[in-house]
Design brief:
Layout lengths: L17 H20 L5 E5 L1 E4 L15 H18 L4 E6 L11 E8 L23 H15 L7 E4 L14 E5 L1 E5 L2 E5 L10 E2 L73 E7 L2 E6 L5 H18 L3 E5 L8 E9 L2 E5 L6 H17 L2 E2 L1 E3 L5 E3 L5 E5 L7 H4 L1 H13 L2 H4 L15 H4 L3 H11 L7 H8 L15 E2 L16 E3 L8 H20 L20 H17 L10 H7 L2 E7 L2 E7 L5 E8 L2 E7 L2 E9 L7 E5 L2 E2 L3 E2 L6 E8 L17 E7 L4 E8 L16 H10 L1 E4 L20 E3 L9 H4 L3
Helix pairs in contact: 1-12, 2-5, 3-4, 5-12, 7-12
Length: 788
């Protein structure tokens, strides 16, 4: 027996049928062919985020960046990704960003592999698992670093024992906490070799800085100073890059043999004029029961790979299982890096960039499967039963295999086209974003951040050279405009802080980050967002967008907060793509619209239907406060907005919608018998809010009034929380409970028997489509009650 779903509403669990997805793939492949034909050389990556299924109420899945369960899930996920996508990858457990107010940098887990498939680390069993317990001691640390020195053919006489800071009068015979091997790559004549020769006086006792971080981060500069790296000559490949080994070159015959002395002086001849200084020290210690190896900074990929091979040979030779930390390899287009980092409330995954659609889809699908296997999901349920994104975003990153191939740097008009087109079409800013939009959000539009931004942006457009624009000019023209209200270049809809920043202000990576993309509840929905961006880039590459910037004014936060107008504007975007030859069907984005703007309920009578949908609300940020020595600004999330859409209206004005005895300012949409409006209301009371004296407006009571009869002909009530006034203290256990909570908040009831006066029309010149419940309502007069 076959069951068919008639008039099926898009489901978040399966937004596309297999047949529909085959059509999507056809369009994606045609766009891939166009990318190749136009020589765009684009790569695309992303930053999806996940939350835990278990212990969903804990702070680590809501507010805090760090947490034990998040770390354990991350460790399991990165190992699963290695097994599925890079069996020869190196698992590296290092440090991530260090944010103000946090005592230490956050952790970062990496899976490092080569695009050509040559293993970086062959035996994954030699990398320790979090749950493994070992009885390693300091003698194991010495044995490993001594054997590694032999494998690298460097002298062991320069091994430094490292000690924790001694208290006054401590036993001088105390055991070290680990060992440090100064390690540099050097060259004599044409021979490249590793050297442990000291460039500083050997300390009598190397005392580390206080702390419990890896000892590689705790070596005092006065004990092991910085040094200029030697100038080395490498064999290059046909692309002008330093040649890397064509296979995993294991060399185990070096163990037990004597190392040749370093024939070079301790300092290179260019030491005094060097502009780059390094402090290369490989460290080994036992920490938390694991044998930890801290990798030094190695600026050349070929040398880093050689060091990793030597380390694996050593582990194999000694039969020891290690934990790899320290520095990751230098950025190189021949490598692929999967990274996991903690962010407030979420686990963030940094997808490696891919060129084609098939690789992007396979990688994204594999990540989704492994995440679910490890009890991680791309969405969560709100206390009121609503479907929510993770809250951590899913930014899209545009780049290329190399900085010089970046499409943004090669064709600066592409950035101009994207910024201007997005500004012309607010749906691109709001349809795929998170709950928090507006000037103080994580990704404000360019016309939300500052009042004069559009004028200044037009000046920059005029200064943009048509051909041969140096990268620093692109950065200079846009860096100070693509920002948020505080001037932060990272918190902007178009983030260019990794494109080509000024010296010492970041790394020039040729990347453009699109931040107004929230995590989609299904990986195929996320892929559709990426496909949309790929199509738009192809369109702009073929024909740059030359339209002028629009002064939306208050229309932006009036009309385009409502789903009807967001959808209408997005259809215009798809129409433009269709004209350019990229047929993205509107139905492919139906689930996005339903997820972003869920239906609350509807009432109907006399052929007129009133539909209520969730709309957008740009929350206000409050004044700065200081708490426990830290400054912060709260967000007033007490306000919400819903759309009222009426269909089936006759040409006369006899039918009106009333909310809490106030007339809703319905505005014709242009479709026959259709009108829409927004209602802005206080849904809950917070300890800190804008206008604290304004009460909660819910429940919202709606009536469809027939003005000719002076009566309500349809009636419903919407509650922001449980109708009985209770408060949910836990999230729904499953989708069924979530749906029950949503349904209980929308109550249909018979219209009142008594006559219902029609309230007067309210005119808000700033926001003509919005009934702002915070404004005092005008009094009901006899004239208004019979208004027709």
């Amino acid at each position: 027996m076959t069951v068919w779903r008639l008039n099926e509403t898009p489901r978040l669990s399966k937004p596309y049928s297999d047949e529909e997805w085959s059509l999507v793939r056809e369009v994606a492949h045609s766009i891939d062919r166009d990318i190749a034909a136009q020589d765009i050389r684009m790569t695309m990556g992303g930053e999806p985020t996940y939350v835990g299924i278990d212990d969903a109420e804990s702070l680590q899945w809501n507010l805090d960046a760090l947490g034990p369960a998040k770390r354990n899930r991350g460790l399991a996920l990165i190992r699963g990704l290695r097994e599925r996508t890079a069996p020869g990858g190196l698992l590296h457990f290092g440090q991530g960003k260090w944010y103000p107010g946090e005592p230490l940098p956050r952790w970062a887990f990496h899976c490092i592999s080569r695009l050509d498939g040559v293993p970086v680390w062959e035996n994954g069993n030699l990398i320790a698992r979090e749950e493994q317990v070992f009885d390693y001691g300091i003698e194991d640390s010495f044995a490993l670093i001594e054997a590694l020195a032999q494998r690298l053919q460097v002298s062991t006489t320069n091994l430094l024992a490292a000690f924790n800071p001694d208290d006054e009068g401590a036993d001088p015979s105390a055991q070290p906490v680990g060992y440090v091997l100064p390690l540099r790559r050097r060259q004599f004549e044409t021979r490249l070799f590793w050297s442990s020769q000291l460039w500083f006086p050997q300390p009598e006792r190397l005392v580390l800085s206080p702390g419990d971080s890896p000892i590689g981060y705790r070596i005092p500069v006065e004990a092991v100073p910085f040094v200029a790296p030697d100038e080395l000559v490498y064999e290059q490949d046909e692309d002008g890059l330093v040649r890397i080994p064509s296979n995993h070159e294991s060399r185990k015959n070096s163990f037990g043999s004597e190392a040749q002395p370093d024939p070079l002086p301790p300092l290179s001849r260019t030491a005094e004029s060097a502009t780059v200084l390094i402090r290369p020290s490989l460290c080994v210690q036992v920490r938390e029961g694991k044998l930890c190896v801290f990798l030094p900074f190695v600026p050349v990929l070929a040398d880093y790979l050689d060091l990793i091979t030597a380390l694996e040979d050593t582990c194999q030779y000694l039969g020891k299982i290690i934990w790899v930390e320290g520095y990751t390899p230098p950025a190189d287009a021949r490598m692929r890096l999967f990274s996991l980092t903690p962010d407030p409330g979420v686990l963030e995954v940094n997808l490696p960039p891919t060129r084609g659609w098939d690789d992007l889809e396979e990688l994204t699908a594999t990540l989704a499967e492994e995440a679910h296997k490890n009890r991680l999901i791309p969405a969560k349920l709100g206390y009121d039963g609503s479907h929510l994104a993770t809250g951590g975003g899913s930014h899209i990153v545009i780049g290329a295999a190399t900085v010089r191939d970046s499409p943004i740097l090669r064709r600066p008009d592409l950035l101009r086209s994207m910024v201007a087109f997005w500004q012309n079409h607010p749906s691109l800013s709001y349809l795929f974003s998170g709950m928090y939009v507006g000037p103080t959000s994580q990704y404000p539009r360019v016309d939300e951040a500052r009042p004069d931004a559009l004028y200044e942006l037009e000046v920059s457009f005029g200064q943009l050279p048509k051909d041969d624009c140096p990268p620093h000019i692109i950065d200079g023209l846009f860096r100070n405009l693509l920002v948020d209200v505080t001037g932060n270049t990272h918190r902007a809809e178009f983030c260019i802080d990794k494109l080509f920043p000024p010296e010492n202000q970041g790394f020039p990576l040729g990347l453009l980050e699109l931040r107004a993309f929230e995590m989609a509840p299904h990986y195929r929905m996320g892929l559709m967002q990426m496909l949309l961006v790929r199509a738009l880039i192809c369109m702009f590459w073929k024909q740059p967008f030359a339209g002028s910037l629009k002064r939306w004014g208050t229309t932006l936060h009036d009309r385009f907060m409502l789903p009807y107008f967001v959808e209408s504007d997005f259809r215009e975007v798809l129409d433009e793509l269709c004209k350019a030859g990229y047929l993205l069907e509107p139905r492919w984005f139906k689930t996005h619209l339903e997820f972003r703007f869920p239906k609350i309920g509807s009432i109907a009578a006399s052929g007129v239907e009133v539909e209520l949908r969730q709309a957008l609300e740009p929350w206000n940020v409050l004044a700065e406060e200081t708490n426990s020595g830290r400054s912060g600004r709260s967000v007033d999330s007490s306000l919400e907005r819903m759309q009222v859409r009426v269909t089936g209206l006759p040409r006369d004005s006899r039918y009106h919608v009333v909310c809490n005895e106030r007339r809703v300012p319905l505005v014709a949409t242009g479709a026959p018998g259709e009108a829409a409006a927004g209602i802005r209301y206080r849904a809950r009371r917070l300890y800190a809010a804008l206008h604290p004296t304004i009460p909660v407006h819910t429940p919202l009571v709606f009536d469809l009034i027939d003005a000719w009869r002076g009566r309500s002909i349809a009636h419903c009530t919407y509650f922001a929380g449980p109708p009985d006034g209770s408060v949910h203290t836990t999230r729904p256990a499953d989708a069924a409970e979530a749906e029950a909570r949503r349904r209980e908040r929308f109550v249909l009831s018979p219209p009142p028997d008594d006559a219902v006066p029609l309230p007067p029309a309210e005119n808000n010149p700033e926001f003509p489509m919005t009934l702002d419940m915070r404004w005092v309502s005008p009094p009901v007069s006899a004239k208004s009650s019979n208004d027709r």
